[in-house]
Amino acid sequence: MRYELYYWPSIQGRGEFIRLALEDAGADYVDVARRPKGMQAMMHLMQSRSVKKRPFAPPFLRAGELVIAQTAMILHWLAPRLGLAPKAEAARLWLHQQQLTIADWLVEVHDTHHPIASGLYYEDQKPESLRRAQDFRGERLPKYLDYFERLERGKNISYVELSLFQMTAGLRYAFPLTMVALEPRYPKLVALHDRVMQRPRLAAYLASKRRIAFNQQGIFRRYPELDR
Amino acid sequence: MRYELYYWPSIQGRGEFIRLALEDAGADYVDVARRPKGMQAMMHLMQSRSVKKRPFAPPFLRAGELVIAQTAMILHWLAPRLGLAPKAEAARLWLHQQQLTIADWLVEVHDTHHPIASGLYYEDQKPESLRRAQDFRGERLPKYLDYFERLERGKNISYVELSLFQMTAGLRYAFPLTMVALEPRYPKLVALHDRVMQRPRLAAYLASKRRIAFNQQGIFRRYPELDR
Predict the structure, then answer these.
(1) Which residue stretches of B83-175 are H helix?
(2) Which residues of chain A have a CB within 8 Å of the CB of B68?
(3) Do the beta carbons of residue B17 and residue B166 sit within 8 Å?
(4) Which of A18, A66, A188, B179 is the 20 to 30 A CA-CA neighbour of A143?
């Protein structure tokens, strides 16, 4: 099965959580919008009235006839096929529940630099961002980190662990000072990050040009004033 | 099967999307936190280290040994058992995808009155709320309404249609002037709202004391200044 991933071509964003799973599994996939005319294909699927089950937003995945959206749902469907999730229902639900909580967390990361409107520039919502980022660093971020640090994990790596690697990596990029201060409290999450990035296929991916660098258009952005 | 729903006892909030499904199906359920000592039971499941698969936040549902959280995931699991979703995978995924988009929409409703911090009072983030609500009314709300208005729906009512009823009802409570202005553009969503609320078991529920009224502690709140 060749998978088609549709996502904005110049940022990691939500698409990266799916790229990590596809890459770690060595899956056959096309990152459609990064190819010639790929953006047109992506916009067609979102906007055409002839597409019955239109996605509201990227990322979405095409697998044969199936087109599905919503990052956590894509991973819920995809990961058992990639060997990155068990097939038993209770275990799959538990992973999906964690991934949905990661999705909530990611919205809060985004909103540190866009608390007023995603359609406005950061520069047009800077005082509000300073306030929201302060609350995020002091309240919300430790709450999420506490939660995931305390959950028990088995030996197997699933897509949830790949996503937790991405959260740690992104938070280090966006909030380096905050993370230096917080990380000693979260040894399990730090160890998990290091373990995931050493997986051979993932290490090769992270060193390749396919891995888009963190940048100031993505969800994780480095604005020093938001980091204290 | 007697289901146990765990959610804050004094608001509709996210729990209401699950209550609507349980009520419409005539399911046997207990709204645990609204009973004596129910809040203690809810907090225990969230905070005790002896609970292996702790939820991050309410709502969550207990069904026998299974405890699951995240509104959209609860409905994804529950609705086929209640006759409110088909059992075929592709159809279930499409409903789940829509419900996850509704969940995203609901976060944006919440953030109109809490754009800075959910731990602060509205009164402590009022200038920011005015800006965020303006963007919500002018940009985000029409975008979501357009999306759901244009999707084709079959004759059957699923949990997604119950949730769309709740969105329309809540938006009418929170943004009455905005909705009066916008609704002529969305005849299908308005008709769906009316059709859902006439379903016999749901009509009985909505008229009962079990239906908590919209209020100023919930996700949908009426602050006239945020409605233009």
Answers:
(1) 89-113, 126-135, 141-150, 159-174
(2) 93, 97
(3) yes
(4) A18
Q: For residue A151, which residues of chain B lie inside 8 Å, CB to CB?
A: 53-54
What's the CA gap between B158 and B186, in Å, rounded? Answer: 20
What are the b/e assignments for A113-144, b being 16+ CB within 10 Å? Answer: bbbbbeeeebeebeebbebbbebbbeebbbeb
- Own/partner contacts of A216-220, CB < 8 Å, gap of 24 or more, are A217/A10, A217/A11, A218/A11, A218/A12, A218/A13, A219/A11, A219/A12, A219/A13, A219/A14, A219/A106, A219/A109, A219/A110, A219/A170, A220/A12, A220/A109, A220/A170, A220/A171, A220/A173, A220/A174
The answer to whether the Cβ–Cβ distance between B70 and A100 falls below 8 Å is yes
Q: Do B143 and B108 contact (CB within 8 A), yes or no?
A: no
What is the C-alpha to C-alpha distance for residues B173 and B188, in angstroms, rounded to an integer? 19
CA B5 to chain centre: 14
Backbone angles phi, psi at A37, to 5 degrees: 65, 10
Residues of chain B neighbouring A52 (CB-CB closer than 8 A)? 152
pTM over 0.90: yes
Q: Is A51 on the interface with B (CB under 8 A)?
A: no
Interatomic CA distance for residues B200 and B23, integer angstroms: 10
Give every CB contact of residue A76 below 8 A, 6+ residues apart in sequence: A85, A92, A95, A96, A99
